[in-house]
Amino acid sequence: MTDMIDTTVPAAPGPLPVQPPAGCPFDPPAEFGALRTEEPISPISLPDGSRAWLATRYADIRAILGDTRFSSDTTVPGYPLSGMTGGGNTANRGFIRMDPPEHTRLRRMVTREFMVKRVEALRPEIQRLTDELCDAMERRAGEPVDLVEALALPVPSLVISLLLGVPYEDHDVFQRLTGKLLSRTIAEDARESARVELRDYLDALVTAKEKEPGDDILGRLITEQQRTGEITHDDVAAFAALLLVAGHETTANMIGLSALTLMRDPETAEQLRQDPSLIRGAVEELLRFHSIIRNGPRRVATADIEIGGQLIKAGEGVVVAVPSANRDETVFADPDRLDVRRANAQHHVAFGYGIHQCLGQALARVELQVVIATLLRRFPTMRPAVPVEEIPFRTDMAIYGCHSLPVTW
Ligand code: HEM
Q1: Does domain 2-408 have CATH number 1.10.630.10?
Q2: Gap from CA of 360 to ligand 1 centroid (Å)
Q3: Among the listed residues 112, 335, 368, 180, the one whose alpha carbon sits nearest the alpha carbon of residue 258
């Protein structure tokens, strides 16, 4: 398939760097630093043997993500596919993998659901859910608790289930399937069967909701858009898949990594306890510092475009290294240091940039602010229950974080 594309991307010295430096599980791959100064748009080879460009500088990355001639459409030849972007399977791919005007039309149908005002109104409910889960953790004092299972995953899963109108009792199903979809190491046939299983699950859910649409996002999509003929049953299922997958794993991993970072940095944790007004800025800095989307976003050029002095030709793929942009020393002073008082932390691109910028960012921010502040307040002595070398980091996943995080207090 690669031969069919007339690519001028030179033979790549190696694959996309994904491993954090030895002994620094929080840092992005060390190769990014050298690439930013020496070859900011550099050739890489992808697992399927095709070639693409890797962009590592902040300015270039904003230029790419802000230019709609770089397409998000996985059906455009040359798109740098990875298993998690849907592989060759492009049916019902969700508006994240579409371009305007279809992207604009579909995204508009759900924009208001995730607006700051709407999400701020959920803050008390998010606090209540967090407190309940913390109560349950407290009852287990003395035994090691897996923070991912006990808090980091349930909060965003409960919230997105509630918003969408997906029964939380089914969380085992969608968490297990999302885990498979986002794995970089799973065999392609296993990923495909997870995709089919999730599709069948959501198909049945949408069918049930068509009979009895609730006062929730999927219910409103059915009554306001599907019944007027603007979208189909399959479109509603695609909205559900995108929002469900994007809406829980991401925030869950940010919670786990943030908690671990603060446990290892008691001075910063104490500053945040003393002055809770620092929490909002701290969350922006944690988003910058961790940049959990490690392998993207990705685009394919639809025209010849020069970026940072390098010509990217129509049909060539680009992998944008968000973790590298967020550690770019020309934008963030002393970028490898976590500084919760950093004045420009909010300029990070952890939520992307341009028309595909994260739809759920206001929700993710509130969830992170509530959970981190609550953990610091209620568990001031919390610490990892195992040495950091024994924590299973998600180097095998498209979204970085910890598979589990045993803690004690
Ligand atoms: C810390 C948590 C999160 C991070 C780091 C994150 C990151 C991102 C990034 C980088 C993109 C851009 C993808 C691209 O340009 O191709 C994106 C898009 C998106 N995110 Fe998030 N996200 C988070 C939480 C959420 C949540 C809670 C939701 C809830 C529904 C969500 C829904 C979406 C959707 C629907 C898109 C596609 C937007 C579009 O294509 O127009 N995300 N996210």
Answers
A1: yes
A2: 6
A3: 368
